[in-house]
Amino acid sequence: MSSIFIVLFGLVGFTFGWFVYSKFIAEKIYQLDPNFETPAHKFEDGVDYVPTNKFVLWGSHFTAVAGAAPIVGPAIAVYWGWLPALLWVTFGSIFFAGVHDFGALWASSRHDAKSIGALSESIIGTRVRSVLMIIIFLLLVLVNAMFATIIADEMIIYPESVFPAWAAIPVAVAVGVLIRRKVNLLAISIIGVAILYFTIYIGSVWPLALPGDIFGLQEHGNWIILLYIYAGIASMLPVWLLLQPRDYINGAQLILGLFVLYTAVLFTMPDVAAPMINDVAEGTPPIFPILFVTIACGALSGFHGIVSSGTSAKQLDNEKDARFVGYLGALGEGSLALITIVAVTGSLYAATAAGGWDELYPTITGGPGATGFIAGGALLISEGWGISLTFAQTMLAVMVVLFAGTTMDAGLRLTRYIIQEWGNIYNIEPLKSNYISTFAAVGACLLLAFGVSNGNYPGDGGTLIWPVFAASNQMLASMTLIVLSVYLLRLGRPAKYLIAPTVFILFMASWGGAWYVISYVESGQWLLVIIQAAVMVSSLFIVLEAWSAISKMRREDSGGDESATP
Description:
mainly alpha, Hydantoin permease, 24 helices, 74% helix
């Protein structure tokens, strides 16, 4: 069967999601108000609260939520077969991620751009806020630690990506300054993307590597230290100067990259080499529920709710833009996951191994992950466009590194926001400082990265407890959907379009968490047992609190009280 079927199925679904379903949600459920004063205007400070053009904000939001996860997750999940991965990516993006990301952005905007954890206090209660903010902080530290290792790994495997990845920083600063000066956005975008692709060419012929004695660590450790130094500085700069334009120009670069990949499929028409439903090896984790926690970004991810309510809500120029930024951002990520499925299951990629696809994917843990996307996607581009394989590999490696980098940038800034929110909630003056909160955020990430080890290299601590992120991330997604559902009920609006996804993902995440706990117990990984069990118990507490809040609303018959809107 041709890979064109996978592409058409996904893109037709996404088209329906944007033109039909998201419009219905925006008009009938969230009821966007173009006259509502967003926090970006209400608290404008030129640093974090900055009214932003919706196209720029979409690029910033998209690349912040995407990271490497919509590549890694689907590249692993196709081991169960390409059909389950395709169905979850398509329907998950339309009916789960879209309303989740869009809703978190809208609800946060209605609550002074508070994080989903902080705004849960006014929607459900103080105790929920306290528990949810701890879960969010833990997941952010995990994301920051893990993405630093992903970037370090890719820079070492593909040293050609080093120069273009770091060259993107001064390009982003220049773009930010020009946008601030109201220079034509289209012209800036074209020139900026052209410069980035020129740096990719330079990188393809000029690979770079770090010496091992910079910090007395191996190359991985050196990169991780440098990445945290950069991310710490970046998180304190005005959002318009680096984070926003870096994400935007990377988003523009990705759009071009996706265009090249999708058209390469059209040019080459590769067959699908992977089975529709795979006869998996003995001992493979069950497809139910593990598929739904393996593919998170690209279908549904709790991390997106943190970004929507943490950074993007502070930059929303008009409430009507929330649909474009939040829902279309989710579909953009779904498009990346979709082309990843094609890249790692296509016949061109399978032909590179002596044993075909079975040789590339002997087990679910033996699959190549992001490396498979780079290798398979590069073959598509090289065959379809006649571009050199080295340049194509460098282009996709840079895409992975930049995605992971922008997510790390946003993740550290979000960690700072959480610490500052704690400072405001508990009136701890030092934590309100940008410098102290950033130092604390970086310190927490470094403590995780270097305080424990997975035995591979200094700084790999994030990989040790990363397995708990899978189910915990989807637990957070269900908690965000619960908060949004309760908010809609308080406003007297239909909540069934959120409650149905909530019940499904809460069930799958709980089932997956229980499966992981049993697996960790059997392998004697007691730290992971404790963390996963704590997240599950905390989530159960939030569910009970939400149920109590709904019951109280019903007793008071106050479901239609519009005074709930700040």
